[in-house]
Amino acid sequence: MGVYLQKVTGQYTDHGNSSSRPLGPVTEFIIFGFPSLQRYPMSLFFLFLLIYLFSVTGNGIIFTLVVLDSRLQTPMYFFVSNLSFLDLSYTSVTVPKMLAKFSMNLDTISYAGCFIQMYVFLSLAAAECLLLCVMAYDRYLAICSPLHYSTVMTYRLCLLLSAAAWFGGFMTPVTLLILALRLPFCGPNIILHYYCDHPPLLQLACTDTSFNVAVGSSIGAFILLISFTFIVVSYVKIILAILKIASHDGRKKTFSTCASHFAVVNLFYLPLIFMYVRPKASYASDVDSLVAMLYTVLTPMMNPIIYSLRNKDIKQSFRKKLQFK
Q1: Cα separation, 294 vs 291, whole angstroms
Q2: Rounded-to-integer distance, Cα 170 and Cα 124, Å
Q3: CA dist 218 to 118, 166, 277, Å?
Q4: In a 10 Å sphere around its CB, with 0-12 CB exposed, 13-18 middle and 19+ buried, how is residue 182 labelled?
Q5: Which one of 22, 116, 122, 248 is separated from 221 by 20 to 30 angstroms, measured CA to CA?
C-alpha cells in the first residue's frame, strides 16, 4: 500500500509505519477503497458511475412499470418491484461515496456516518436475502400448487410477506451495530474497503473482537444459510414438479417463470456467503473488495437485465409506455 497519511482527531500519522501508536479516540474514518488501484481514480470513477446510473435507471424503470401497468400488478411482479426498489436503495448506500472519493478525493466519513452506512447496508442485504426467500415461496406455490395459488397468495399476504422481509432485514444487524458501537477505536482509522462494512471495521478496534466476529458469523450463517437452504428446498420441489410435466414446451415454459429468480439468487448469495460466514476476522482487502463488488454493485446492475431480457411482460409493458409499435 505504501505510505498513507491518516487523520485522527485532527492529527496525522504515517500508516506505513506499523509501530505507530494510537493517537486517541477516532472521530472519523478514511475509506481507502481498492489498494492496488489507487493510481487510477478517474478510471474507477467513470466505471462505477456508468454502473450506478445503469442500476438506478434499470431498477427505477422496472419499479415504475409494475406500479403503473395494471397487467404487472400480480404477486410475482409485486415482489419484483420490491426487489428493484431494494436494489436501488442498496447500491445508493455505497456507490455515491465511492464516486466522491474517486472524483474529488473525499475519502473521509464521520464516525456516526460510518456506523449508519454499515447498519443500513447490512439491513438492506438481510432484507434482500429474506425477499429472495419470499420470492422462492411464491414461485413454489405458483408451480407446485397452481390451483390454490390465487386463493393463497392474496394481496394481503403479499404485503405481509414483503413487510416481514423488510422488517426482518432491518432488525437483523441491530445486535451487530450495538456490539460494534461498544468497541474502542483509537487508531488507525483507515478502512481497507470502499464502504464501511462489518469485517474491516472490526479490524480497526483497539481490543479483542473475537466475540463480535463470532456473533457476526453466527447471524450471517443464520440469515444466509437458512434462507439459502429454504430456497434450495423450494427449487428442488419446483424441479421435481416440472419434470412431471409431459411436454418439453410445457417444462420450458414453466421453468422460465422462475429462471430469472434462480439466476439472481446465485449472483447474490454465493459471494455474500463467502464474505460474511467466516470463523475469524480475516480480511484480504483486494480479494474481498472484488468479491463485495459482485453483490453490492454488479448484482443490482444485473437484476434489471435478467428480469427485462427474460421477461416478455416487462418488455411489452416498456414498449407500450414508450409507445413503440
Answers
A1: 5
A2: 7
A3: 18, 20, 7
A4: exposed
A5: 116
pLDDT above 90: percentage of residues in the chain: 38
CA dihedral of 253, 257, 259, 265, whole degrees rounded to 10: -160
Closest CA to 87 of 55, 117, 64, 119: 55
How far is residue 319 from each of residues 67, 83, 257, 304, 325, measured CA to CA in Å? 16, 22, 20, 15, 8
Q: Judge whether 8 and 189 are in contact, CB under 8 Å.
A: yes
- Helix crossing, 111-144 with 155-171: angle to 10°? 150
> What residues contact residue 257 under an 8 Å CB cut-off, 6+ apart?
76, 139, 142, 143
Handedness of CA 296, 180, 106, 37 (dihedral sign): negative
Q: What is the pTM for the complete model shown?
A: 0.85
Contacts 24+ apart (CB under 8 A), 249-254: 254/143
Quote the cell numbers at residue 155: 394481496
pLDDT digits (tens, 9 = 90+) for 108-155: 999 999 999 999 999 999 999 999 999 999 999 999 888 899 999 999
Collapsing DSSP states into helix, strand and coil, what is residue 191? strand
Grid cell listed for 4: 498513507
Q: What is the 3-state secondary structure (H, E, C) of 264-316?
A: HHHHHHHHHHHHHCCCCCCCCHHHHHHHHHHHHHHHHHHHHHHHHHCCHHHHH
For 83-120, b/e burial (b = at least 16 CB within 10 A) is bbbbbbbbbbbbbebbbbbbeeeebbbebeebbebbbb
Domains defined along the chain, listed by start = 27-140+149-321 (1.20.1070.10)
Residue with cell 470463523: 279
